[in-house]
Amino acid sequence: MEPGFLALAFGLLFIGGCSARVVTVSPGPLIRVEGQPVSIRCDVNDYGGPSEQDFDWEMSRDGNEPRSRIISTFESSFSDPSFSRRVASGDISVVRLQDNEAELKIGEVKLTDSGFYLCRTPSTDPTTSGNYDAQVQLRVIPNTLKVTPQTPPPVVQEGHDLTLSCSATRELTFPSLTYLSIAWLVKTSGGSEEILTFGPQGDVVTGPRFTRRYLDGDLRLVPGRNGAFELVISRVTASDEGTYACTGAEWTSESGGKWTKIVESSKEMGAVSVTPTNRSLNVKASSSPTSQSSTSLLLSPGNTLTLLCHVSADNLDALSLEVTWLADDGEIITVNRSGVVRANSVSKRGEASLEKTGDSDYRLAVRGVSSRDGGVYTCRVQAFIEEGRVTGGGAGRWHKVAEKTSNPVTVKVSEVKPNFTLTLEAATKPQKTGEPIELSCDVTNISQLPPGGRLGVSWEYISLPDKVTNASPPKLIGSLDANGNLESNSAYKDRLDSGVLVLSRVQPNTFKLRFLRTQKIDMGQYVCTVSAWSVTSQGKMVNAAEYKSSPLTIQWETKSPTVKVAAKTIRSVSVGGATFEMTCSAITENIGDWIGFAVQIQSQSGTEAIKTIMSLSPDNVVQVTDPSRRDSLVLAKTGAREFNFRLEGVQPSDKGNYWCDVTAFTKQLPDQSWTTAATGNSNRITINFQENGPSFSVETRYDTSSVYPWETAKMECSVRVSGSSPKSGGTNSQTEELAYEVRWFFTRLRGEQTTSPVVSVDRFGVVTKSNRNSSSDVSIERKDANTYVLYIFGTQDSDSGEYHCMVTPWYKSTSSGLWTQDKDYTSGKVFLSVKIAVWDSLKLPLLYGASASLGVGVFSLLLGLICARCCCRNTAHTPRSRTKLMDLEMD
Questions:
Q1: Rounded to the nearest 5 degrees, what angle is found at the Cα of 134, between the Cα atoms of 137 and 88?
Q2: Where are the transmembrane segments (predicted)?
Q3: Buried (b) or exposed (e) across 667-679, using 16+ Cβ within 10 A?
């Protein structure tokens, strides 16, 4: 035989051996209890043939032949007579789970069902290999499980422990070893919940709601004798109400360590209700241990108030209490669960103490009572139960279960209030606005003021009613407490802080209110309120009594403030260039002190508008309207109400009427701001003088009205003098008595018509040029005493337009010898045109263009000739076709 054939045969055998049929059943032995259901599973793998396999079940007592046939998935008449009736009734059945898996089910197993159960699968394989059956042993034991619970107490106080006792027993059958477990459950309106399960391996499993309590030690399992167990629920709450049950179970450990429950029995233990702490908690307040129902108590000042709080509850031993005493619903003092006492520091009552005098009694003591210690006293108790505290261990969580407040006890402190009389009068009354007010509040006939008592005062203001509205509510001005501290949290705070308004105690029983400077709004009614303060045993000041004076009306006649101003000439003017000086005096009425003045010097010439020359503010700040006249103008305050104005170098343009406009201001405190009081104007003083000076006229002329670009244009500005002419010399004359300021202007006529300065020369010969957008340049030259020449160098088209000059003469007065500025004189306009030379502007561009075109043409001709000779030369000559039509078609 060939080696290849042997290898193939060996491979087939190997594959066949690896694919042998395997039949398996549930691992055993199986221990079950009589009367309980039993299921035995069977499956087949690694088989051939159809995917769906059939199963036959047989049974023998010792695992050997003969066997009794039980049931089959293939043959309906497979069962022996001993099993056919149970099969027909459904007590024994087979259920196909998958194509290769089935399950034998016995509804109520009997003791006689103990034996070996064989599962066989008929062969569908092409070759026979592997195993076709498997068997498992079933042991049926009697049901001896007994569950015996003890009935729990029907009612448990909240916070107490609840013990649930239950026992589970069974008879041991050798060699069938079984194990027990016991579980507690509670049934409420929300359903049944598992509390705790113990076993079968000795492990403990708790329900979700009870896990935390078990870990905290509030749920404990206490093993007893003869299978009895006690489940202790510590510190029960209202959520523990319900019907409790006990469940016992018998378990067996099968192959592989799997635990299987074979029988279970549940017994109801009984219903348990939890009595809430709030139902039995009772709190009573009294003035003494013998008086349990006192509702009122009368004390004298300085006595000690003693009150008792008695707490009772059915489960008091399981509670931890927090006790608080309250007066008029305000907390006074508290003792917490740990016994720590905490007093309310905000309370204005006497010194209080709280101590526990018994298991359920708490005593409050308030020493040195006063009128403020009177009120309604109650005792509030909060009950807590500690959760999660292991016996002998640390602290757990506190849960408040109840809160109650005792009956009220009314405490009254009899105290005789001090009595006295108030007298409010005005020591100083103002006659007009701005004068001071001084009010005196005197306390007389004081009686019953305790030793160490003091007086305090508060001042109020009530505005006077008008025809439209009634009087407004009182406004607090300020107050002095018993220690003399000033309280000024009112609308008068700024005036009090600045010292304009003063509150003082000049004697122990005399108080004063003083306004250093009154305002119109201070008219009204004033009231003083005096309070008597006593000292408690703890050194605290207590308000014992309070009395209010009758309103005192403060009113004066109000007159409108006025300012009268008188102007007087100090130095008059008869010729130009002289100095003018005048003084203004202000007289005020109904304004008072603390006055400031603002002065304006104003003038008017004929029907012209009024001009303000200069001004002086109340803070003596000077402002000049015309900065060029700053050096010749003076305005100064020479007295409390006097002001001096001086104008040096008077000119003809200064002629007109002059007067003072004076505004009186009052300074408001405390912000130191100025407020307008009144305004007045003085009489008018005229500046007018005759000056026989020269008269002037100005004209403009030029040599030619048109120039070409880049040429120089020349224009003259000539001044003609007539009348009495002062002497004038050249520019170097030291006796020159006439000078001019000359300014040239240019008006562009193209586009938007605008006039702009070109160049100017002042009377001292200083030339000033304006900024120009053109490339041309300008200059000005004095040709003679009365002629000025404008030169425009390198004229451009932008220089075309109208030109005119403006001359301001200055001459020295023959009478005073001072320089006088005359008015401005404007000449007529002349037009300058800058011509455009067309041929001159085009000949060079044309010449350049023709030369460039000729050069490019010659260059192109030479380049084409070179290319034709050298680069594009064809040595093979092709004769030209005579057929023109054919050439066109070829093209």
A1: 70
A2: 846-872
A3: eebeeeebeebbe
Q: Which residue reads 């109340």 in tokens?
A: 618
Query: Residue 839's pLDDT is what?
Result: 57
Task: Retrieve residue 497's tokens.
Answer: 């802080």
Burial grade of 530 (CB within 10 A; 0-12, 13-18, 19 or more): buried
Is residue 6 one of the residues assigned to a domain? Answer: no
Separation CA 181–CA 805 (nearest Å): 130
- ∠739-741-746 over CA atoms, to 5°? 150
End-of-domain residue from the set 244, 275, 306 = 275
Among residues 523, 503, 498, which one has the least CA distance to residue 513?
503
Report how far residue 751's alpha carbon sits from residue 740's, in angstroms, rounded to the nearest whole number.
34
From the list 313, 159, 184, the residue with the least C-alpha distance to 237 is 159
CA distance 511 to 404: 52
H helix runs in 197-276, sequence order: 211-216
Burial class (CB in 10 A: 0-12, 13-18, 19+), 513: buried
Same domain, 302 and 357: yes
E runs forming strands in 775-818: 777-784, 787-793, 801-812
CA gap 585, 21 in Å, rounded: 140
Given a contact cutoff of 8 angstroms between Cβ atoms, the answer to whether 534 and 541 are in contact is yes
Side by side, the strands of the sheet bearing 419-428 are: 419-428, 437-447, 510-515, 501-507
Tell me the chain's radius of gyration from C-alpha atoms.
64
> Is-contact 809 795, C-beta < 8 A?
no
Distance of CA 319 to CAs 277, 313, 390, 521, Å? 9, 9, 16, 68
Q: pLDDT tens for residues 388-412?
A: 654 444 456 787 888 899 899 989 8
- The domain total for the chain is 6
- pTM assigned to the model: 0.45
Q: Is residue 425 part of a domain?
A: yes
Taking the C-alpha atoms of residue 72 and residue 52, their distance in angstroms, rounded to an integer, is: 14
Euclidean distance between CA atoms 389 and 235, whole angstroms = 10
CA–CA distance, 756 with 778 (Å, rounded to integer): 14
Element (H, E) at 859: helix 838-866
Residue 249's beta-bridge partner residues?
Answer: 181, 264
Distance CA 497, CA 373 (A): 37
d(CA 821, CA 809) in angstroms, rounded, equals 6
Tokens, residue 683? 């009489």
Q: Do residues 719 and 814 both lie within one domain?
A: yes
Residue 202 has a CB neighbour count (10 Å cut-off) of 9
Give kind and range of the element (H or E) at residue 759. Answer: strand 754-761
pLDDT tens digit string along 801-855?
Answer: 899 999 998 877 665 667 778 788 899 888 988 887 665 556 667 788 888 888 8
CA distances to 443, 513, 563, 818 from 508, in Å = 9, 15, 46, 78
- Domain limits at 69? 20-141
Q: Looking at residue 580, which CATH number applies to its domain?
A: 2.60.40.10
What contacts 887, CB < 8 A, 6 or more positions away? 881
How are beta strands 162-169 and 282-286 bridged, if at all? unpaired
- Helix, strand, coil percentages (3-state) for the chain, rounded to 5, are 15, 50, 40
Range with lowest mean pLDDT among 61-75, 146-160, 534-548: 534-548
